[in-house]
Every structure is written in C-alpha cells, then in structure tokens.
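Structure in, sequence out. Go:
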C-alpha cells in the first residue's frame, strides 16, 4: 500500500497546482476584460 500513496499524493499536488493555475489565469483574464470594458 505505501507505493499507492506514493503515486497518489504527487497526483493530488499536480491536480491542485493545475486548478490553481487555471483559476489564476481565468481571474487575470476576467480582470483585464472588466478593465478594457470601462
């Protein structure tokens, strides 16, 4: 079982990092969109 968690935990970190990056990018685009809209 240690092997499974050893594989699983980095996957969670990668998924979390990807989600955070996507959120940051979409937020950045959202802010620029509002800024250009004014």
């Amino acid at each position: 079982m240690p092997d499974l968690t050893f594989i699983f935990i980095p996957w969670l970190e990668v998924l979390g990092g990807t989600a955070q990056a996507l959120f940051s990018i979409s937020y950045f685009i959202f802010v620029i969109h509002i800024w250009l809209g004014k």
